[in-house]
Amino acid sequence: MSSFEELVRECDRLWLNCRCTRLRLTPVKKQVQKENRRKAVELKADWETFLQHAADNLEDAGWKTEMDRRVLALLRSESVLNFAVLKPAVQEEFLSITKQFVRDAMCFDTALELDDIMQAMRNVWIILLLECMLERKLCYHKAIFAYSMLYPYTDNFLDDPAIDRQRKKVFNSWLSERLKGEQRPMDADLYRQVDALVSMIEDTFPRQQFPDVYDALLRIQEGQILSVQQDSRLCEEEIRRISIYKGGASVLADGYLMDGDLSEKEAFFCIAYGFLLQVADDIQDMEEDRILCQHTLASMLHGKRQRLRLAQRLHTYLHEVLFYHYPAKASTMQSFVEKNCRFLLIGSIAKQLHLFPKPFAYRMRRSLPLGLDAVTTLMNESSAMLQSEQIHAVIQAYVQAL
């Protein structure tokens, strides 16, 4: 089995060998965009009516059952991410595991905010999709719960500008030692909660029997520490290595936490796929990262054509990873994942179109299923609706009834 560093270097070589290929952007007729907008507005209005009814009848159990039905129907009917290719039993299992995770999270910490639960739940979904991709039985256990819950606790602390650098340094040092198996009790809620979560992973995967699980977890921690160094002093090669390290380690840990074991081909796929997701995130966040002087493969670029070439290379890399380094036999999951990744890439670019060449931005706008202005309006209106006190009460009532 190749070491993590060797797999990172192999991923780097794969990236460098990818040419910049023109993104496939099939034009969508304006009439079709208008029709799609009409359907989206109708769907939004339908959900608003349903949620208003729920808000007026919080004690009624009927709307909670209807919520489950609606979510499943949405998964089976939407055509953008193509969730319909997943078997109905898998879709139902996704929903069942999601509800179980929320129950577990609320039992673990009654003070958790809904946003924190959603942040952790995204990682659970990534692991479930990875199980589908790698042809594993769909499963959920307390190590998956614990690892996913580490994200809101550690991220919220490390990203809080009100907490000084020295306290963050002490926490990072303690967490690194804890992931190595060192037991060093600290008298603070954050430390006790994180310690309890790591203990859950240890209960599921004993250290001596599953050393790769803990090596992957340590790599994530090392990647977090390395990412602090991403400034203008680093060259592109160094920034690229940090990006592969950080993104790759995260999905590698997801892979090992399925059942504790991965083949070399599966481990490389996890690292390569993780880097893909990392670069897409970097493109989406490049303007914010530039303001914060956080240098990534996207934010370090100064020209519009350079940014376009990065997106084009990622487009080629996506195809290489999913069709030449996919560790399982060819299946509908490949096209499902490719469609999702392409949607992620296009969505990341669409949010930053003013940073790309005008001819490309024009092609991108014409290829979207809805006009960009319509998408922005719908997202802003939906966000405002979901942040209202009434809807928050509905979501809380639904979660508490799980």
Structure in words:
72% of the residues lie in helices and 0% in strands. It has 402 residues and is mostly helical. It has one domain: Farnesyl Diphosphate Synthase, CATH 1.10.600. Helix 2 (30-56) runs parallel beside helix 16 (372-386), helix 9 runs antiparallel to helix 10 and helix 13 (304-324) packs antiparallel against helix 14. The longest helix has 27 residues, at 30-56. It is globular.
Number of domains: 1
Number of helices: 17
Instruction: Please report the distance between the alpha carbons of the first and last residues.
Output: 43 Å
Proper CATH architecture: Orthogonal Bundle
CATH topology (level 3) name: Farnesyl Diphosphate Synthase
Q: Outline the biggest β-sheet.
A: none
Q: What characteristic shape results from the CA principal axes? A: globular
Class of secondary structure makeup: mainly alpha
Percent range for β-strand residues: under 5%
Instruction: Let me know the average pLDDT.
Output: 88
